Amino acid sequence: MVPALLLALALFAPLAAAQQTGPLSVECLGCICEAVSNCNRTLTCSGDVCGLFRITWAYWSDAGKPVLQGDNPGADGAYARCTVDPYCAALTVQQYMTKYSQDCNQDGQVDCTDFARIHRLGGYGCGAPLDPVYEQKFVTCINHVQTLG
Ligand SMILES: *[C@@H]1O[C@H](CO)[C@@H](O)[C@H](O)[C@H]1NC(C)=O
C-alpha cells in the first residue's frame, strides 16, 4: 500500500491530531504503523499486543497509561480501549517516545529512524539489530514519504 495514499485516507485525521502531542510527525507515525501492522486499524488485541501500533501493556504503562476521553487508567480494559483506537494509540506512541527519545543509531540526530527502533526494541538497547521485515517496511515507507517532500 502506498503510504501517502494511506495517510490521505481515514487514518490521517487521528494521526495528524496526535502529531501535536509528541516528537513524531504524522509521516513518522504512519511509517511505524505501516511497518508494524500495515496500519490495519481494524486490528484488536492478540497475544500480548493491541491495535495498529501493536502496543503491549508494558509499553502503554511506560507511556503513562493514556486513556480515551472519560476513561480511567485504572479501569479494567482501559489499555485495550486506548490502544485499539488510532488516536489514543498514536498518543501512546508519542508519550513513550517523549520519555525514551534518544539517538539509537548514533548518527548525531534523533529522528524517525530512532523512533522506529525505540518502538520495536524499547527504551533500552534500541541500537540492537531490527527484525529485517520490520526494518525493510519502515525504510521503504520513510523513503517514499521523503521523496514526496
Ligand atoms: C486487518 O486485520 C484484520 C483482523 O486481523 C484482518 O482480517 C484483515 O484482513 C486485515 N486487513 C488488511 C488490509 O490487512
UniProtKB/TrEMBL annotation:
GO biological process, one term: defense response to bacterium
Catalytic activity annotation: Hydrolysis of (1->4)-beta-linkages between N-acetylmuramic acid and N-acetyl-D-glucosamine residues in a peptidoglycan and between N-acetyl-D-glucosamine residues in chitodextrins
Disulfide bonds: C28-C112, C33-C39, C45-C50, C82-C88
GO molecular function terms noted in the UniProt entry: lysozyme activity
EC number(s) reported in the record: 3.2.1.17
Keyword terms, alphabetized: Antimicrobial, Bacteriolytic enzyme, Disulfide bond, Glycosidase, Hydrolase, Signal
Pfam family of the protein (one): Destabilase
InterPro entries: EF_Hand_1_Ca_BS, Invert_lysozyme
Enzyme class of the recorded protein, top EC level: hydrolase
Signal peptide: 1-18
Identification of the protein by name: lysozyme
Organism of provenance: Cloeon dipterum
Classification lineage: Eukaryota, Metazoa, Ecdysozoa, Arthropoda, Hexapoda
